[in-house]
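hey so i finaly got around to running the thing on histidine kinase from Mesopusillimonas faecipullorum. pasting the sequence first so u can double check i didnt mess up the copy paste, my clipboard has been acting weird all day
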Amino acid sequence: MTKTLITLGMWAAAAWLISTWAGETAGWALLVAGLVCMILVSARQLSQITRWTRNVDDPPPPSVGPWDDILAVVYRRLRRNQQELSDLNRHMDGIMLAAEALPDGAITLNEEMQVTWCNSVASEHTGLDLAKDKGFSIFNIVRAPEFAAYARQSEWPEPLLLHLSHGDTERSLLVQLTRYGDRQFLIVGRDVTQMEKLETTRKDFVANVSHELRTPLTVLAGFLETVHDLPPESLSDEQREHYYHLMMEQAGRMQALVDDLLTLSTLESSPSTAGTPVRLAPIIDHALRQAKILSKDQHVFVANIDPELQINGIEAELGSAVGNLLTNAVRYTPKDGTITVSWYKTESGQACYSVQDTGIGIASQDIPRLTERFYRVDRGRSRATGGTGLGLAITKHVAMRHGAELNIRSRVGAGSTFSLDFPPSRVIARHA
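ok and heres what it spat out for the 3d tokens, dont ask me to read them lol
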């Protein structure tokens, strides 16, 4: 404004000087010409300002007269606002990346319980597609009556355990709803499927151990009570010897179960090691002798053993796995059946220990569950021959600790083949 007044004063002074020299008409003409020039200059400056307002990110036009000071203040404010906005955007991007990186699912809702945002984990958990489902009620997406009842509460002091099915996937989610911001809601969902399975496994394990121990304990207690309550002269030496034999048998079952449980616990808790060179042939020979004793000469045994083949491993663990596979073959192969034991190096460089039988075979639906603790295809037959139901679980752990694979091939009525395939890195090269 000061510049404009100075310019106007200069034009007025010039017009007065001209009027004193060339007449009043000339003075007025010069003043009008000056005012027109000022108007034209102001119009040009306003035009430049107008063009600048279309893209305020650029610096303002230079030399726009009285507007210079105003535009400088406006531009500085715009630059500061842009910087603050940029910082806010970066901060928001960081928050969104952090939300995406969360191991838990997160869903934000407005006051009407409509979806406004979710991270990728929540999409995986619930099948929510933000591009399609944004703005829709969460109750149309999570169609579970227990969730609807939970979400419509006024307070949510405890999370909700929710079981959802998405395609072929069953999930257990621990869901917590909370308020935030201005009448907005946040749902946090944690996948506890594996934890729930582990808890179920733990409960089943305790129940199975209790059941497996209860049977021999009941039998043992019954015989002890009988022997204790009857007069000594009422039992013959043969009967007394028979009772003692049966009690020893039940005590042996409990001892075998405890031994297998301790073995399994050791395998699960101790760290894996590379081990030392082990010749498996003597271990297999020992297991064969034990299997023949268990068989009581009721089976035909065929052995194809490479006596020099060695692997790096832990001898005690390998002995347990070798013996378990042979013992199972004896238990599930009828009288006069054939059991073939092989230990050889494959063309691909692996070392393979296999036990093939002509037994009752296994149904295809049972094969994936064979390595579960206490799982038996034929419970009565296994118990009758002294099985604990832990042999294949132990064998699987031994295989994993040696980098091997436990492979099972079987058909009902056509026998089974169990094999431990050790990787070439475990096989010790023979010296010429």
